[in-house]
Specification:
This protein has helices spanning 2-32, 65-68, 71-76, 109-113, 123-133, 136-153, and strands spanning 40-46, 52-58, 80-82, 87-88, 105-107, 175-178, 181-184. The chain is of the alpha+beta class. A hairpin with a 5-residue loop joins β1 (40-46) and β2 (52-58).
Amino acid sequence: MATKRLLDLTLGSILLLLAAPVLATAALAVALSRPAGGVFVRVPHTGLNGQTFPLSSLRTRRYRLDLLSRLPHVVRGDLSLVGPAPLPAGTPRAAAPWRQLVRPGLTGLAQVRRDSALPWDEPALLDQHYVEHHWIGLDLAVLAATPAALARRGRGYGQGRSQGHLSDTDHRPGVTLRRNKWVPSARVP
């Protein structure tokens, strides 16, 4: 765990320094557009050991700059670079015991595998898989895959994500998932 925190602190600080000019420009642009709620959005999220912290994000999702604006949380220790997606406090999924074993992350296995055609491509299952099997090598692989995943997704969040999930499995005989819809299958004598 100490190696992961060292990676978060070192790489998070470097990324924050590199992103600072872009973030300052984006914050100025948001401020000039005079949003009603200010430049940053602050929403309570659940983190490590169930602790609640206010997650601040730049009030724009354009070009995914809201993710870069969360880098101070990585340096501070509220977030990790890699981990399950941070969820708002009070949501049932945020209360799952396995979610509270690690810090939530800026990116994670669910984010880089989201548009995969794997049958288990459900964000919660991927996040749980990460929590159960995380190690520094997996973190480095996820970090390396993140830019390509963001580029594939473009500006739209979650484009191409499979809509057939394991939790939607219908075990009734004669029902098949086709093109993300449950349809009666052909009768088998």
